[in-house]
Amino acid sequence: MAVDDAVLDDLAIRLQRTRWPDDVGAGWADGTDVAYLRELVGYWRDRFDWRAAEQRLNRLPQFRAGIDGVGVHFVHERGRGPDPLPLVLTHGWPSTFAEPGALVPMLTDPARFGADPADSFDVVVPSLPGFGFSDRPRGPGTARRLPRLWVRLMSEVLGYRRFAAHGTDIGAFVTNRLALEHPEHVVGVHVGHWAEPDVDTAELTGQERRFVEARVRNAEAEGGYAHVQRTRPQSLAFGLTDSPAGLAGWIVEKWRSWGDCAGDVERRFTKDDLLTTVMIYWVTGTIASSVRLYKEWALASRPHPACPVPPVPPGAGESAPLPAGRRIEPPARLALFLPGGDPPPVSWIERAYARPQVAVMPRGGHFPAMEEPQLLVEDIRAFFRPLRH
Prior knowledge:
Layout: H1 5-16, H2 34-46, H3 50-57, E1 62-67, E2 70-77, E3 85-90, H4 98-101, H5 104-108, E4 121-126, H6 142-157, E5 163-167, H7 170-181, E6 186-191, H8 206-222, H9 224-231, H10 233-242, H11 244-258, H12 271-284, H13 287-297, E7 332-336, H14 346-352, E8 356-360, H15 368-371, H16 373-384
Parallel strand pairs: 3-4, 3-5, 5-6, 6-7, 7-8
Antiparallel strand pairs: 1-2, 2-4
């Protein structure tokens, strides 16, 4: 990975000429805080070193493979242990391969971190199509192809007949679908978000009904971004593709809102962390193709089971229930990082999974690979330990 100098020169000009909106003193209440973004853009313009970030990322062994006509970028690091278990890690939005990529050393070489070498993994971290250095899809339909793409990457390209899978956010939706559609390839799944069960509203328990009502309230408070990305991704894409400050404002607000940071985004993420993520979207021009995935899956469009949605693939998360009468059969662990939130009722989870384990993690938010890497890695190791043979 080596970004052309001309891309960085163009970025510098755009940052210098940023046009700023009015600041009515609302702080973060109306979205991204103008004062904070001015500070971040100033750091980006004057101090952030993309070449240093690029060098750090390039320590991960990266490859590309053509699968079903789609160029997929991925990290592949073999484990240093007696019998490493293949593990595919799938990121979400607004994330990139850099987030789960931070776990690679801990998962591949546990002895280096004082853990048991028998817990080593062969780690694969793909970039979702439309994100980062994977190809941008040229038409609709990529979402429903993702489980098959991952199976072909793992089995045909890399030679792993069976493997473990972990994902957060959209990556959890992909991982759940992978287990639903290709259980013969999946040892088990470790996810940060549950699959949505098919349920008649008349069948809801009192606890489930309260859970659904709380989700509706949360969708009103936090779901505006998803509604835009689901309904008008192209309209949004012009501004985010043309303005680096606009792109940073759209992404960084989510890292602050979803991270376990008590309103102080830099309590969990450094400016370099945030800007490395923003830069991967910027230098690849993939913000439009990344948000379009929300339209393909109608993501976050069904806060209540009674809400109608367009036809979408099964198991895609909150937007689409599993097929009637179907559950995810491979062993599954839901490691839920929910700062200030409540998990679904056990009955809700058991509608979707045949063999679930549920753990509400004591700290960490939407980006656990960067917020609580040790906690996440230990949980992954423990879950897959009895599934290795």
